[in-house]
What we know:
Blueprint: H1 3-19, E1 26-27, H2 30-40, H3 42-60, E2 68-82, E3 87-105, H4 109-175, H5 181-216, E4 220-221, H6 236-246, H7 248-270, E5 274-286, E6 293-303, H8 310-377, H9 383-417
Helix pairs in contact: 1-4, 1-5, 2-4, 3-4, 4-5, 4-7, 4-9, 6-8, 7-8, 8-9
Main location: membrane
Keywords: Cell outer membrane, Membrane, Signal, Transmembrane, Transmembrane beta strand, Transport
Family: Belongs to the outer membrane factor (OMF) (TC 1.B.17) family.
Amino acid sequence: MTYVSRSFAYAVALFATVMLGPTTTFSATLDEALRASLVNSAELAAARQSWVSAREQIGVSTSTSDLTGTVKITGNQSHSDSSTTSGFKQSQYASAAITLSKNLYDGGQSAENAKLAEYKLDAATASYSNSEQALILKTIEAYLDVVKAQREVSLHADNLARLESHVKAAEARVRAGAATPTRIAESKARYARAQSDAIAAAADLQNADDKLHSLTGIELRDLSLPAALSSLPATLIEAENIARAEHPNIRKAIANELSASQQFNTLAAAVKPTVSLSLSASSKDKTGTAGDLDDMSAQIVFSSPFLTTNATRAKSRSVSASHAQSKFARDEAIRAVDVDLRSAFRNMNTTKIRLDAVTSELEATRLVARGIVSEVTFGQKTILDQLDAEQDVNAAELRLVNAEHDIILASYRFKAAMGRLSAVNLGLGDVLPSLTNLPSPDDMFTGTIPITK
């Protein structure tokens, strides 16, 4: 077996290992990959449960106006034996009391705390949208990386086959005395470099496959190249207006600012007067009958703080600082989104121009290569010239693959920069239930009496 055939066999074996691995695979579109990723993502599942936790905090906010009940039971039994008094004595004592309490007026704490919890839920909703968008973009990038790597592997394999034929032809010409060994060396050098590039491309494909598999949980092969997104804003001003209104980072920053502002209201409500009603019933049983007592009472209590404590002042300063911080964070979120959006807009337009240029370049290199092949036939060009021209064609084909990859990815990144790369906007709203339809977690308390399961 010659050097060329041994090397080529090794390359083919590597491609077969990469492209036909032991794991069961099937063809898939980008839509199917995204659906699998949404279902498979533990990070997204965690974000959904975080949203449920924020929703349940609305119920926690009513704690200052909830009806509470307490039961207190006390029992005592004593034995005494005294030589100086009446000798041995035994006494028993038992008491039980039930108290029901409720704030008739809690200073507005429940209402203010509920409003605060709703702002925090808005922030959690925006945070989930951000997680969902990040996952979708990550999956799109991984999917397109696999498609690009598959196409590059195919182009490198074609290039290897072409260069192998050139090496064999050079060997035949040397044996016939029509060429020198230098020509064989030139052809083998180009073949060795192409083989190295092909092996690197195969490794890149395996890496891209691993990343996509980790996101989707399934092996995908023979992926189809999706089209670039259409119906995108034509002007930067239109895109900025959309991003200001819809981007999750801006929505979260605004919700956090409203939440920080609401802290002033909750603090003010906490120091307002309260009116509470309590009903209690108690029974005491002692040795004999003189100490027995049954009692029922009701009381209304008006309570109002009249001193401002150091803790209250510190809390007020803390709330003020948090509110100022939230304003700066909102401005920073808007700035960052604007910068990313402008960059994504320019990149998308640049990739369109680059794709047109690469397409024209490929057509020109193919025309040149065909012309040089004809000139080689008539002795006007050398085989080395033909190899150079064919290599230019291969390089242009690889650049076209990258340009088509970049323009598709740029369109999705531009949509993400506007905050619109969501499951609903991509027609995937049926994959997972909406946040509002998520069930509440199991309650560890079985009923009115706080006894855990």
